[in-house]
């Protein structure tokens, strides 16, 4: 986000890509926590996209063991892709608020439609690099990044009408601390840059983000930030469906967002996996708003 571009917020109340319900209430909680006013205070023009532009998928019962609720996930993401594509075409900054992380299938399909060399910074406790062959759960939110690079079921890799959306060399993972065996193998084979919590502890978040920004934006025509709130430590962000201890602390998460703003390279973003049903009051939704503000340029001084 940079101050010239008006922001279009796309709320996606959808959680069929996750193993537990609740993230569908994420957008309402983040809106209630004041994200629009916070962005306006920073000088942005803000438009709230109506969620009526997204289909109601509740009647769709298509599912499979290794691809749970694939009908609903596919339908919503084709619509998200169209919407994000239009938002970008209208000259607005697309900020999508989830929803579980399966919705990144659509946001990346929409963002990469007009940016053939899109970089991605994927801030997450997980890799979301599973395919139907490697998934331990069948939950599609653990497969969205793999699908964006063209791996997995063709219905999903083909969302938005083209594949692949991303080149592995412009993808950077930040904050990983729970990777499945198949994901580890894939990260090594494809040479995807992955700054795990080990690198963050060892070299510091400042250094890690400098590198992440450099790698994702080198030779790129835009950078998408996909921020899974479970990247943050569960002590700070308890309201999420797949918490993993040992995550980013409060200042590290803010520093990452502040540096992304400063770099001026981010062209679209999503914030996902806020689950108000599991939250301690509004702690996690409020944190999401603060982090969005940092990404939008809010500073201490
Ligand atoms: N977006 C997320 N929170 N993903 C969690 C994925 C967990 C696990 N790796 C799986 O494939 O099921
Ligand atoms: Mn994720
Ligand atoms: Mn995650």
TrEMBL record:
Pfam families: Arginase. One of its GO terms (biological process) is urea cycle. One of its GO terms (cellular component) is cytoplasm. The keyword Metal-binding applies. GO terms for molecular function: arginase activity; manganese ion binding. Pathway: Nitrogen metabolism; urea cycle; L-ornithine and urea from L-arginine: step 1/1. Mn(2+) 2 binds at residues 124, 126. It comes from the Bacteria. Keywords: Arginine metabolism, Hydrolase, Manganese, Metal-binding. Belongs to the arginase family. This is Arginase.
